[in-house]
Every structure is written in structure tokens, then in C-alpha cells.
Amino acid sequence: MNCFVDKILFVDLTSRQILTAPLNQEWIEDYWGCWGLALRYYWDEVSPTVDPLSPENVLVLMTGALSGTLTPLSGRMCLVSKSPQSGTVFQSNVGGGISNELKFAGYDGIVVRGKASSPVYLKIEDDRVSLEDAGDLWGKGIFETDKLLQTAIGSEEAKSLVIGPAGENLVKFSCIGSEAYRQMGRSGGGALFGSKNLKGIVCRGTGGVRVADMGAFLKTIDHYKKTSLLDEENLWAYTDGTPILMEATNEMGIHPTRNFTAGMNDSIQPLATDAIKAAKLGDRACASCILACGKFTDVNGAQMEGPEYETLNMGGSNCEVNDLEQVILFNRLCDDLGMDTISCGNIMAMAMDMTEKGRKDFKLPFGPSAEYLKVVTEIGTLSTERGRDLAQGSRWLAETYDSQDLSTEVKGLELPAYDPRGNYGMGLSYAVSERGACHMRAFTVFSEAPLDLDVQARDVVDAQNLNAVKWSLGFCDVWANISADIMADILSVGLGKTVTAAELLRAGERIWNLGRLFNLRAGITAEDDKLPQKILNQGLKKGANDGRVFSAEDFEYAKQTFYRLRQWDPEGIPAIEKLAELGLDQY
Amino acid sequence: MMKILFVDPAKCTGCNRCTYVCSAVKEDIFAPEQARIRINNFPHQGFSVPSICFQCPNAPCHKACQFDAISRNADDVVVVDADKCTACGDCVEACPYGMIELLNGIATKCDYCDGDPACVKECYTGALVFQGKTPGLLKLKGVQMKQRSADGSPQEKRVRLGKAILTLTRG
Predict the structure, then answer these.
(1) Looking at beta carbons, which residues of chain A come within 8 Å of B46?
(2) Measured CA distances, A5 to A25, A63, A68, A103 (Å)
(3) What's the mean pLDDT in A531-537?
(4) Do B41 and A180 touch (CB under 8 A)?
(5) What angle do CA A285, A347, A369 make, to 5 degrees?
(6) Which residue, A212, A456, B6, B134, is the most exposed by fewest CB within 10 angstroms?
(7) What pLDDT score does B71 carry?
(8) Could you tell me how many CB contacts below 8 A there are between chain A and chain B?
(9) pTM of structure
(10) Direct distance between the N- and C-terminal alpha carbons of chain B, in angstroms, rounded to an integer
């Protein structure tokens, strides 16, 4: 089959059985790959009430429909499972080369079931697949593990997905790392691996991916590269990378500062894009990407690919650590221990606030201090009482230490680096996303009417559907102006049969509705589609949105408008007519 | 002036598009393992080094061939005559850079795509250039050509070259 390699790997860790099955043909055109197809497989694998960290939970890893081809920015791989952080279904994805490598090995995806009796890793060398002992790797950081797995498989070009001590320790916001500096960052994928005694997956593939008509495909790719991708709207990724957002969000007044107290950081310069450029050794790209948004930096010998915007903000501005070297060290620690920098930075800022306000003395002040880096290791290794406390996340801290007014999370997932009080679309998007406060579902930051509730509700629905398609074909967020028409054209030429933009967008809608059905059955209701007290009640300080809140009344209006546009009832339940239209009425 | 393929590793982002397009135009499939250009990626150090055929003067692959299957064409490019190749593997062993390999029973290497290399057109950052000699480019090429391996598999030879360039660049 064109574009796909037509095989799914099923790995049962309990019985150590490894099987393959052809890709389910009936699902392809409804879900396409990556997010959509992983979600469809996951739906069949578990009950929505499954305990995320139990052996009964399942992990589905899926490549994008266009992964492995020359299509630019098409190498994302998705993980779909139930999150230990939010108790919802979630999708998290990663770039680098792992998605393409898995396809070259001959698999569109992997379904992982059960729990190994002792630590193992999954080794994939084309059609030779085995579970290997990971006893010696357990306890090691992601950087070292990645190298050791390359040695074990005998190729520097092997790609891996691995966890560090935080994932082994079931830290709720632990992540899965790939090629040292890239992550399936959010929702606790690391703990899911850890709960299964799965240290990692290493893959080397020497096969390939075919398309219907290579000549026509290369021409199509070249056309959209020139007419859409290499446009001013995307080239910031090459010149600056995500750090360009530091000054942009600061000027907009939506730059979380001092635990979401202020919307701008007066001392941002040490963390701004020019500082990253000054520290840059080179540009880094994911497989097949032209834009190379990764900036490899060095400050006084502290080197890494990054930091990205979210980390600069959450570990920097939001903790009032306006020191690039410190933030790089924070980032490296998180990457190596295997923790999401967004949640970790957010939680640390909350702990700083709690310390300052006397709610609980974590001995953790705002600003640079010896404690700032020390506490990161304590969280990942659960080695101190405060480390164990912070590892529980902001919702637990708020409930345990009566600090609801200081936490910023939705469904247990901490807010990322865009304050919703100055951009209501981001607030709505956080509230109604399938996994809690995620900025990757509908990115309304550059909207011209960020406070217009009707415009924002519409924009969130449209962006959610389009992004579900992007993430299913394997595209990266950074190709901002890619349309459903462009995606449909590339996919059609690759497959050798016509797929329309309307069909793709319907698949996007289907993905959102199926995710919603899962969450409803998991016990998540409209009550959970909410925003933190701080966002609703406390005025943002400084900058363009000084004094502004996203009032409970405005938020409720936006949420109900969103439900209506989705044809969901006031309780957020999809109308049966909508489900019938999407072919989901049997569920 | 005769055009030559040059590499500037400092500009390589590790996107690997050159390997994808090479296998696409030569083998009708996206399969970096079948490409005539390879990228040695060192993500931990944020560095990638393309491995190319240097079309060596006194090419070791040419000299090693006992069947007259390897020759130098009018454009000074070292080419393989598939009809004469016996897949003995002597050229593979002889190449100090790991840039000729047996693929489907024939010694396979870069032929500059008849003077219009597909890889260069896909290289957005200019890490790959196809042009006449300049002192700067010749110097880069000279440094790379010094990284010769006497033994090992083609992949091992390429990785050795990559690591040596990484060390020379970053220390």
C-alpha cells in the first residue's frame, strides 16, 4: 500500500508475546494515522474506566500517514493512551526521526499491552523484534540510555523512545525522550512506560516507504514547499525558532510571569530570542524538516538543543529566573530525568508562591537560587519530601495545602505559557481539550480578536479539527499555514487516489468526538471543562492586559458557544445526529 | 568550470532530506539506506556530517575493480558499469569513506545525477553545494578527505569520518 507499510506490531509485555497484524483497512480513511488511527486502535483496546497505571492500560504509538516520505515536517509520531495526570484520553507527539525510522523498519504503529515482570526494552531491527532485559538501564537518565540502546542495536542511526528516573518513579508529569532533547512531553507518558516496566523502545529500519507516482509526488512536494512552507509565516522557525515567542507574548501581555501573576516580564532580555541567537552553535531539524527550528546552544559549556519557548517561559519568567544558563541547566535536568518542562516549571513556580505566601515552606524562593536546580532532581528521583510533594502536581498541592488560588491547571494538566486572561481562545482551548491545558489543540495566540468570544469559539473548533488532521498525517505544528486542501493534495498524490479536504476535516471532527465519548465514559463531564480560579478571579498584572480576568460568565458563554458549534448539548454530550454523521452512532 | 559536490558540515541541520530524495530519484522509494549520500547524525552534540563520494583522484574503488566495471567519465565522475559488475565487493572494501556499497547485487555509488544532483536542490541551508572550486571549499574537502578508514563496514567508516569532523569542529 502506498504511504503506509501496512503492519502493526502488537507487544504483550505480560506474556512477552510479539505479533504483527496488517493495518486495519476499514479505519484508515476515517482516521489516517498518528493521532486519529492511534485513538481508534486505543478505543478497541481498553475500557474508558481503565486505571492508567495498571497492566490493563494500553499504549498505542502510531506514525503519520505521510511519515517517511519527503513531505516536509511530516515526521511526528503520536502516543495515545489514558493519562495518569488527567485521567482522560490523551495524545502526545514527538518529532526527530523515530516516526520515519519505525516506518522504515516496516511498522505503521505499535500497540503495547500488559506489564513486564522486570524492566525490559523493546528492540526493533526491521523484522527482528525482541524484548530485552533492561535491568542495567533502570535508574539511568535518558541521555545515557539513548546512547546505550544505540550501542546495543549496533547503529548510531537507531532512534529511540526512552524514559528516565522520573518515568520509572511514576512522576505524574514524566515524559518520554527521543534523541536526547525531543520529547513526548505532556500528560505523563513516562509514567505509563514506567508502570509497564518498559524502559524504552529502540528501532533501526533499513526499508522504505513507497508512493503511487514518485515523479508526481516530488513535484507536488516541491510546489507546496515553495508556495506555502517557505513563507514569511513559517520562516521565523528557521531564523529564530520558538524563542521568538518570548518578546511576542510579552508585548501581547500574555507572558506568564511569577506564577501567572503578571502578563509581562520586565527583565526578559537574558531569555529573549537574541540571547538564544548569541548562544547558538547551530540549527537542528527533525527528519524531513526544512525549517530546523531547533537551536543548539552553549552557555559556559552547558549545551543542549533548546531551550524552547515553553521552557524559557515556565522555567524562566514564571519562576523569575531570568538567567539563560540556569534555564538551560533546568531544561537539561528535566530532559535527562524525563520530566515535562512545562508542568515542572509551572509547579515549581506555584511552590515558590506557596513558600512566599507561607502556605507551605518548600524553601524555594522565586528567582535564581541553589534550590532552583536542586529541587528538579529531587522531584525526578523522589529523594526528598518536597520532591515527592511537587511530583504530585499542582492540583494535589492545591488540595493538600489549601492553595486553589495559586494553582493553574485544567483536568490536572498544568497551564502552558500563554495566559488566557489576554487571549480567551487559549483559555477555551485549554478548558475543552481532551487532555487538559494544552496549547497544541487550537493556537489562537495570533488571532486579531483575542477577546471576542464568538470569534474565539469558532476559531477553536476550526483549529481543533484542522490540527487533528495535521497530527494524523504526521505534520508538525510549525507549518502554520498548511491548509486541508494542501494536505489532501499531497496525500492524494501519495496514495494514488483522491482524498478531499472535506473528508480530512470530517476525520478531524471524528477524532474530537471519539475522544469526547471516551472521556465521558471515563467520568469526565462538562464540569471538568473549566479554568483555574486565578484566571477567572484574579486580575492579570502589568502589560497590555493589566487588570483583566476571563470572567466566569464570559467563560461559560464561550464554552456553551463552543459546545453548540460542535453540536454538543449544554452538558458537552455530542448529539446523536452529529455522531451518526461521523459514523460514530454505534458508540 | 567543472562543478564538484562540496559539504559544509557546520550548515547541516540533520534533516536528512538529501538521503530521502536520493533514494527517491534513484530507487523509486523513500529509503535513506539506499541513498548514495548519507548523514551521520550526532543529536546529543547537535551536529550532523554528510558523507559523500569525493570522486577521488586515483579512486581506490576504481583501482580495486578487477573487472573493469568502474571508470571515470568525461565529467571526472567515477561511475559503475552495472553489466560488468560481479558484486565481488572489492570496491566496497577499498573505499576509505564507506561510499560505495552493493545494492541489489550491483556496486552502487553517487554519480552526481548526470550533473544535476537532486540532493543539492533539497539542501535549504547550503550544507551541500555543487559548484566550481574555491579555496574555502577545497580546504573543507581536504579536511574531510583526510578522514580515511582502512577497515570496517561502510557504515563504520562513515561514522568514523563523522566523529572525526565533529571532534575537529567542536573539540
Answers:
(1) 281-282, 284, 294, 296, 303-305
(2) 12, 10, 10, 7
(3) 98
(4) no
(5) 85
(6) B134
(7) 97
(8) 99
(9) 0.98
(10) 35
